[in-house]
Amino acid sequence: MTTNFSFCVKNFDGKARRGIIKTSRGNIQTPAFMPVGTAATVKAMMPENVRETGAEILLGNTYHLMLRPTAELIQKLGGLHTFMNWSKPILTDSGGFQVMSLAKLRNLTESGVTFKSHIDGSKHLVTPEKSIEIQKMLGSDIIMCFDECTPFPSTERTSLKSMQLSMRWATRSKEAFGCYPEHALFGIQQGGIYKSQREESAEHLKSVGFDGYAIGGLAVGEGQDLMFDVLDYAPDQLPRDKPRYLMGVGKPSDIVGAVTRGVDMFDCVLPSRSGRTGQAFTRRGVVNIKNSRHAMDPRPLDEACKCPACLNYSRAYLHHVFKANEIICSMLMTWHNLQYYQDLMVGIRCSIEENKFNNFKSYFFDEQRRGDIEPI
Q1: For the chain, what is the total number of helices (H) and then of strands (E)?
Q2: 201-211: per-residue pLDDT in tens?
Q3: Residue 167 and residue 260: Cα distance in Å, rounded?
Q4: How far apart are CA 90 and CA 79, in angstroms?
Q5: Does 175 score more than 90 pLDDT?
Q6: How far apart are CA 324 and CA 39, in angstroms?
Q7: Using 50, 70 and 90 to split pLDDT, how confident is the model at 285?
Q8: Angle at 36 between CA 34 and CA 38, to 5 degrees
Q9: Which candidate, 98, 174, 177, 81, places its Cα nearest to that of 133?
Q10: CA-to-CA distance for 95 and 101, rounded, in angstroms?
Q11: Nearest-angstrom CA–CA distance, 366 and 362
């Protein structure tokens, strides 16, 4: 296992865990949310501004970066951290999800996946070995195994076949990872919505041995209730002394519910994507800044937020620049959303430390139910 990577749980409150991941590039307080830097950038944000929100780790997308500007170029220019001016840890996904969802004319075999780029139609083969090689070239601090993201819905037979292929790929990913000091490798649990398959997947991953474990194949259309049904048991199937990462999640209520069930790490494009489309997350729910109700409202998005959008600009201004299609709207709304997510994680962590997580949850959901402040 990786000697320069460690995880410890400082406190439990029910199944909720307050921990710390230690890496050679800095510590990550958990539960943690990772902003998504798809193409070596968090859209509409400067890296230093992302740091100001409190983010301690970013996610990069292997599929996008291997196609453009290529892993070879990034390696030549000093690695992903230097390339995008981010000195803290970076986790890269394996590319499996994007290959399945974005690529053209996919052909899946035991070896890997052959596909045509969605950018220019060029042909590529990604295998577990190739995915690990690309992530090493990028210089990722946390590398993900190559897997097949099982679509939803899937029959039990289809899900089983997909999960078992991913487990064989996990073994090959571990062998390809080899000895890579100061970097970590995470395995990915699959098995769809089937408890026995999730258990089989977890047992295989534990037998191989990883630095951390992800829960894959959720947030793919099954809905929150069914996702929580799976999370009622899936985290417990994974090692207690390793970080647990729920991939691609999610809405604030998804995160609170998953922390309740023992998850430590999250990522999602939602805060940045929503910011660019005029949606702001606040302690009182979602604000759609494009709505005419905000046209003359002098108040901030959220009085409790200390981001530049809330400290310096009114809802009326944000409404105006959204309607005018000005870039500053995407910048301010994205900054606010990322700040909201990091503040949410701080609140979660503090409440677990103080054994008051149930109180935090009650307050969180009460405020969300109250809804947005009525216009003046």
Answers
A1: 15, 17
A2: 999 999 999 99
A3: 27
A4: 11
A5: yes
A6: 27
A7: very high
A8: 150
A9: 177
A10: 10
A11: 6
What mean pLDDT comes out for the span 244-258?
Answer: 97
Q: How many CB atoms lie within 10 A of CB 308?
A: 15
Against a cut of 0.85, is the pTM above it?
yes
Cα angle 310-316-321, degrees, rounded to a multiple of 5: 90
User: Which residues, including other chains, have CB under 8 Å from residue 282's CB and lie 6 or more apart?
Assistant: 301, 302, 305, 340, 372
Q: How far apart are CA 107 and CA 167, in angstroms?
A: 19
Residues identified as active-site? 93, 267
Residue 375: pLDDT band with limits 50, 70, 90: low
CA distance 338 to 347: 14
Architecture of domain 6-268: Alpha-Beta Barrel (3.20)
> What are the sequence ranges of the domains in the chain?
6-268, 274-368
Contact present, 309 and 318 (Cβ < 8 Å) = yes
Contact (CB, 8 A) for 126 and 177: no
Instruction: Give 134-143 pLDDT, tens digit per residue.
Output: 999 999 999 9
Residues in the chain: 376
For residue 29, CA distances in Å to 62, 125, 140, 258, 342 come to 24, 36, 18, 16, 11
Query: Looking at the predicted structure, is the pLDDT value of residue 157 above 60?
Result: yes
Beta bridge partners of 11: 18
